Amino acid sequence: MDIPPNQIPKGNILIVDDTPENLHLLSSTLTERGYQVRGVIDGGMALRVVRSAPPDLILLDIQMPRINGYEVCQQLKAAEQTREIPVIFLSVLDETWDKVKAFEVGGADYITKPFQAEEVLARIENQLALQAAKTEIRNLNAELEQRVQQRTEELAAANQELRIEITQRQQAEATLRQQAEQKELLAEITQRIRQSLNLDAILNTTVAEVRQLLRVERVLIYRFEPDWSGVVIVESVITPNLSILGRTVQDQCFSDGYARQYRQGRVLNIADIYAANLSPCHVDLLAALQIRANLVVPIVQEQTLWGLLSVNQCTQPRPWSPLEIDLLKQLSDQVAIALQQSHLYQQVQQLNANLEQQVQARTAQLQQARDFDALLKRITDKVRDNLDERQILQTAVRELALGLAVASCDTALYDLGQQTATTCYEYTTLSRQKQGKTVSMAEFPEIYHHLLHRQWFQSCEPYLEHGALTLLACPIFDDQGVLGDLCLSRLQATVFVEHEIRLVQQVANQCAIAIRQARLYAAAQSQVAALESLHQMKDDFLSTVSHELRTPVTNMKMAIKMLKVTLARSETAATDEPAITGISQSANATPNSRVTQYLRILDSECEREISLINDLLDLQRLEFTSAPLVTERIDLKLWLSALLESFQERADAHQQYLQIEIPDSPPQIESNPDALNRILVELLHNACKYTPPEERIVVSVAVEQNQLQLRVTNFGAEIPASALPQIFDKFYRVAHADRWKQGGTGLGLALVQKLVKRLGGAIDVNSAQGETTFAVSLPIVV
Q: Confidence class of residue 347 from pLDDT cuts 50, 70 and 90?
């Protein structure tokens, strides 16, 4: 089964990062791109994984617990098995000394967090390409060494045969010396190729060393063009007059047939061009190049005939020995390796240049994005913190104009009923002014058609001073409709790009939110003012009514007292007069008792009305008076005993049991006695009113953590759970709770709550299982 190309594994990558989010993100990204990925979270585990199964590349976080990235890299570079594995460091820091240290310990590259996926992938591919190039170079070097070894062995065998066959010592010594020189030259050139990536230097050294070793007049390297012409790119000559460097040679006799032979390893060995049975055109070409004896070997790079390595004797014939031919073959192989190495190096350089360009472009994009984000945040913060519609638009226009460096920026608000747009603010460097102008949307249908449909619009219009202007208009709208627009003008005849349009749209959205918020705030302020006016009217009315009611009720009270006095006097006078015949005193007692009963009813209702009016005035005074209450030293035991004495009589009259719980030696406290009296009186009054006969009323006082804890509990009755949230409301009374129909104003508990708050305390009520407790907690100064 064939694997799709995009799923063929590109390489084995180990990710070492103690942050699971980074590890997951890198693993997902690389896996999607076809890499085989393994991930570990600490350096020790990473060392074990690498030693057991070395990866092709390692992404290594610098900052990790126990063993950091530098130490892991040093251990990997110290081991022969893992020395060549490229390591790319990951770090949240962008400090120069961090990068220097990373490369000092053997790191191949360095990535700063937060990283971009494309940057990570580009750097990984770059390092894998470098690693592949190095591997290929090592393989070529190994192959070369093998071939050198093979040739060396062949030369050794040949030397052995020559030593047997050649009887003359001088010839044998010369041959051995020549072999040694060739070996030395070959080794030197091979070493230079391994140590240098400068192709020109390698080629110039090669031709110079060969010319000196073979003692010839000229050595050159000839490079082919696509049409099989060529150029002499390097040479070494004994005299300048023999130089043909840079000369273009067009060999009319050279054809694809010769090219194919050279690709297959053909060697041209000519001791004398005039005795080699060459074609006339070939002889003429060689003679024109001042060649008498010629030894040529091909330079083949990746099955392509790249050029020729040529050794020339220019002034006389010269036979070429097998050793010289073999040396030239080996040197051509070295040149081919140098070419391949240079080609790979150029590819790496190009990859690095491309990567650097991509990084710079991406960096510029990220910087611009950060600048736009900062601009948007600045505008958002300013408009969101403002509730003045005009200042909101003024801020947005100014910041946009300066941030995008445009010639003009303005904002208009719409009157959709009149179909008009009014420019309310403008920031411009142009001579024309639009601020305060109102235009009809019908005059510019091509613009407002888009804006009213919540679409941005971009156009170019002529402008006398600067040739042309590029306009961008974005609507300001929310879910309730289009509110206005933002319009920007640029002098250059270039369009606004996508990220600029997106920024303007985001600013328009923020303006829409801020404008709607400002308008809601203005409406709310108007409503608050209206409510305050109504509240004041209510309070004024209540104060007036309470005052007007209090005066006649006081007069009524006085009149009732006078009636009682008059009635008492009339009863006394009637008792002193002699009985009228036929009428007994008992018969006269009936009308007087009725009058007494009516007066008692009238007196009770008048007292109730006075209590209501007093409670209303007290509530009003508490609500509108913020001055602190006057405090004095209070002895809790004496104060409570005096207060509860009258309630003891009332409880006895209703067959209730009043129980007092107070410490034996309570401390003296600093508080307002009138407020405390009113609080406890109202709570006891309610308890007596709603407690059935033969039940208890418990009053407890305690001091806990500088708090006066005052509790009044009555048994045998409870407040429904649905009534508890309203129990402190004005005029609220629990339905069917007053068994003796004693009535009440419905303001007592509201007054208690107000007084408790004025004293800086809190009141709570709990009612369940046949008992009700009002708990008051007040701060005190002992």
A: confident
Cross-strand partners of 704: 707
Contact, 668 vs 715, CB < 8 A? Answer: no
Q: How far is it, in rounded angstroms, from Cα 145 to Cα 153?
A: 12
List of residues 6+ apart from 779 with CB closer than 8 A:
706, 707, 708, 759, 760, 761
Instruction: Please give the C-alpha separations between residue 501 and each of 141, 242, 408, in angstroms, as whole numbers.
Output: 57, 69, 15
Query: How far, in Å, CA of 365 to CA of 359, rounded?
Result: 10
| Cβ-based neighbour number of residue 429 at 10 Å | 10
Task: Please name the residues in contact with 267: beta carbons below 8 A apart, sequence gap of 6 or more.
Answer: 295, 296, 297, 298, 325, 328, 329
Q: Look at residue 304 and give its three-state secondary structure.
A: strand
* Residue 582, pLDDT score: 42
Contact 193, 204 (CB under 8 A): no
pTM: 0.35
CA 601, CA 603: separation in Å to the nearest integer? Answer: 5
User: Which one, of 473, 147, 86, 492, lies nearest residue 336 by Cα?
Assistant: 147
Nearest CA to 107 among 129, 90, 89? Answer: 89
> Which residue type sits at 294?
N
- 292 pLDDT band (50/70/90 cuts)? very high
Per-residue DSSP letter, 6: G
Query: How large is the average pLDDT for residues 67-89?
Result: 88
Both tokens of 510, joined, read: 């923020």
What three-state secondary structure class fits 309? strand
Residue 313, pLDDT score:
92
Residue 583: pLDDT above 50?
A: no
Q: How far apart are CA 450 and CA 455, in angstroms?
A: 5
Tokens of 104: 């000092």
Rounded CA-CA distance 339/368 in Å is 43
Structure-model confidence comparison of residues 781 and 91, the more confident one: 91
The full DSSP string for 470-487 is EEEEEEEEETTEEEEEEE
**181 neighbors 196 (Cβ within 8 angstroms):** no
Q: Is 751 helix (H, G, I), strand (E, B) or coil?
A: helix
Query: Which of 103, 74, 75 minimizes the C-alpha distance to 88?
Result: 103
Cα 386 to Cα 131, 372, 377: the distances in Å are 59, 21, 14
236 φ/ψ angles, rounded to the nearest 5 degrees: -135, 120
